[in-house]
Amino acid sequence: VFAWRAYPPAAGASDGAYLTAPSLSRRGVRVAFTTRHGGVSREPFTSLNLSYISGDDPAWVRANRARALGVLGLGLSAWTSGRQVHGSHVVRVGPSERGAGADSPADTIPGADALWTQDPGIALAVLTADCVPLVLADPDRMLLGVVHVGWRGLVGGVVERALADIGTGGSMVALAGPSIGPCCYEVGEDVAGPARERFGEEVLRGRNLDLWAGVAGALRAGGARQVHFAALCTRCEPARFYSHRRGDAARQGVVACLR
Ligand SMILES: [Zn+2]
After folding, report:
1. Distance 185 CA to ligand 1 centre (A)
2. Assessment of whether the complete model's pTM goes beyond 0.85
3. Confidence class of residue 170 from pLDDT cuts 50, 70 and 90?
4. 178-186 average pLDDT score
5. How far does the centroid of ligand 1 lie from the alpha carbon of residue 237, in Å?
6. Is the pLDDT assigned to residue 56 strictly greater than 90?
7. How far is the CA of 184 from the centre of ligand 1 (A)?
8. What is the whole-number distance in angstroms between the Cα of residue 12 and the centre of ligand 1?
9. CA-closest candidate to residue 130, choices 245, 250, 213
10. Could you give the 3-state DSSP secondary structure of residue 78?
């Protein structure tokens, strides 16, 4: 399902590639999971940092966001994101929310870890650096959602709530992008306990939490049948991804839209 595509060359920007889903693209749903490559930011944000609250120069973040949205065929004004709080609040986005959070973190949609829309030309965005950027796309019904899933949101039911709001009929496809893998996600009992209670022992591997197995379980429970994981660990690959656990303040993420 996943395929890498290169950004077109741009003055001042580094070379880079994004992870997309050509089969969805052909059906009118454009998706780009970003990495740290392809942008204009300098160390320690090198180079495609999408976060205003990272301490990076906002002008560079704007340029990076425009570059990511360019591959969807959209401009910065289409960027629409929520204030991510590791909650399970799901917000339906229409034309009046288009552009929320595009130019400044001040006007992001409050408390929204999951966004969905039926309107073309709105670029839904989620920022991550170890958490799972999740896309829920139904090309038959032209419905699209994006979800920010960390352990807290997962245990809180954000995945099932997003599926319930969007609906799982038709041709729902779930895509889970680069995020911390079971190889690296060591947790304490404060995290392991609630995860075990919610999903059972199979989401734990020794001292590590298997966030991907948890997301897969939540997607199954929510009724999603076509589920695909990039299975790329952000903590394992510092050359390619930002990682919160490794100390990065910068963020990659996913941008997606209906055409
Ligand atoms: Zn890893």
Report:
1. 7
2. yes
3. confident
4. 98
5. 7
6. yes
7. 4
8. 31
9. 245
10. helix
